[in-house]
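STRUCTURE REQUEST FORM
Protein name: Acyl-CoA/acyl-ACP dehydrogenase
Source organism: Ralstonia soli
Requested output: structure tokens
Priority: standard
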Amino acid sequence: MELSLSLEQEMIRDTAREFLDARSDSAAVRRVVDAVDAVDTEGPSAGHDPELWREVAELGWCGIALPEEVGGAGLGAPELVLLMEQMGRRLACVPYWSSVCLAAPALQGALAPAQAQAWLEPLALGTTRAALVLPVGTSPDPAGQLAPESLSVWAEAGEGGFVLHGRVDQVFDAVGAHWLLVPARIHDGAGGLALFWLDVAALANNPQLRVQPLTTLDRTRAVASVVFDALPVDAGGCLARGAEVARGIGGALWHGTLMLAAEQLGGAQQCLDLTVAYAAERIQFGRAIASFQAVKHRCAQMMVLTEAARSAIHGAAHAWQAAVAAEEAGAMDAARLDIAAARLAAEEAFAFCTQEAIQLHGGVGFTWEYDPQLYFKRAQAAAGWLGGTAAALDCVAGALAADHAE
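Status: completed
Returned output:
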């Protein structure tokens, strides 16, 4: 699609770019990474920049896509992808994607609007951070549902409420979250799903809940294991049950996939920018390597893939926004297909651009002192998040098979 931004959208993009260039530059990201490497931290700073999060919240970014009734800006996916692209461009070490793009939409989708308001207000302000307790590799379902059999956490009736059991090996930003939102299978004969809310501070000394930070390839995004060892939860901690949970979390996974694609686009763009700048400065055989035709061709291919991903992502964002407004099943099916295609384009662009950035930086490209290695690690880690390429291809293949059958 032809990318045409409104004046308001241009302001959002440009403001985010200027702010993150100043507050999440390479030095700031490396301080967070170095802190993770130095000590296993279990507080809010584990893999996060608390000061950057405070400023992001003050800018109103946490509520940009939430309704005005809960303190949000009332915008939507087209504006949020602009922010996520800039977040990805600077590898911003804040739990923005996990809280704003996954947890908040899960609450919106699983709860009735009147019930959701009280939960969404602190998320919109950024005073509260939430983590959706699902494995990082959970794939969005082509039908937009969350299947009970995909969950490793289950709940059974207990005295005055429920008891949670199970383990989730890798969860985004669980360390430092104020709330854990836990989808679980219900063992009550009827089966089905429920969404539980846990106040982490209230459970800080409870050995039946264990949140353990993990050492991963990408130190710019915190991941932790979460264990429920017969954890009692009162009845009020069960926010929703039944089909609404399956639909709400299923929709949140697709929304998160779109925003992850936008983040990957930002990373690809930064790799291109870094490479072009380096090629203009690096002298070989008495000339800047940017003057060599082979280097030009490789940079041009980076740009082609990046622009193709940008077009696909913005097209998918508009399709998703229209489908949500229309509440029409056919439009939502088409939007999910667009998101799958956008994820494929973003994956390809990010993987290619990180590899080319390392190669075109020559002998220093893989070293710790240069930034391409940070983006390469993010690209490798993100390739398996939310199902990765395999899940997106399954969605596209299923749609093509259905069209052929008709």
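Reviewer notes: Strands lie at 130-132, 153-158, 161-172, 179-187, 193-199, 209-213, 223-234, 238-241, 283-284, 287-288. The mean pLDDT is 93.
Form closed.
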